[in-house]
Specification:
Layout: H1 2-28, E1 36-44, E2 49-56, E3 63-68, E4 74-77, E5 82-88, E6 95-100, E7 111-113, H2 115-118, E8 124-129, E9 137-142, E10 147-153, E11 156-163, E12 167-172, E13 182-188, E14 197-199, E15 207-209
């Protein structure tokens, strides 16, 4: 009888532990009670900062939290279900936004903001022509409309131009070697400049064309 009592006691303890663990798990689960909408994302080049503007579905959301990679998170207060928050950053990683109560409990889904919302689309170099005058290179690239395309030589500014359409033409001079590095970026207003794209420098007398398929 004593042995049976001990086994029952252990069984009761195990069941009690399971019930307690189940209760803790249920309490830790986030309850989604509101919705977060980011209506606009802009970029300020002067201070390398992205600004997010939006609203919440109800007044229970008191704060908006913004994270980017492993950097320290930024928090702003929601006023009349509207918010505007800025965060300095480098690179092209994703931002995460979510809403919390006054006590810091998350009550919205985590919203992901990719670089497509804050950065300019990368150019596509479609043609490089070195068949003309010695030392010249004609470059054709597809860029976002209403953007400024900039060419760099070994990381230093070479030339830039504004493009109303999606095709940019560059007539480069003093191209006398093939070892240096030419790159091009594009930038739209209120957006971060695109990542740099390499411009192939073909040998004199040659033309290279590239077709992109989607």
């Amino acid at each position: 009888m004593k042995l049976n009592w001990q086994l029952m006691g252990l069984l009761g303890l195990s069941l009690g532990s399971l019930v307690t663990a189940g209760t803790i798990t249920a309490q830790a689960k986030t309850t989604i009670k509101a919705k977060l909408t980011t209506s606009a994302v802009t970029y300020q080049a002067a201070n390398k900062t992205a600004t997010f503007t939006g609203k919440t579905s109800n007044g229970k959301v008191k704060h908006i939290v913004v994270t980017y990679g492993k950097t320290k998170h930024t928090t702003t207060t929601v006023k009349k279900q509207q918010f505007k928050v800025s965060k300095a950053f480098t690179g092209y990683r994703d931002f995460k936004l979510y809403g919390t109560t006054a006590k810091g409990k998350r009550i919205t889904k985590v919203q992901t903001i990719t670089s497509a919302r804050y950065a300019t689309q990368k150019p596509l170099v479609t043609r490089t022509d070195r068949s003309g005058v010695t030392g010249s290179l004609m470059v054709t690239a597809q860029v976002p409309a209403a953007s400024v395309a900039t060419v760099y030589k070994n990381g230093r500014f070479l030339t830039k131009q504004y493009n109303e359409t999606t095709t940019a033409f560059f007539g480069l001079t003093d191209i006398t070697a093939t070892k240096y590095k030419l790159t091009v970026t594009a930038k739209k207003a209120d957006c971060k400049a695109s990542p740099a794209v390499t411009v192939p420098v073909v040998k004199p007398g040659l033309i290279m064309e590239t077709n992109y398929y989607y």
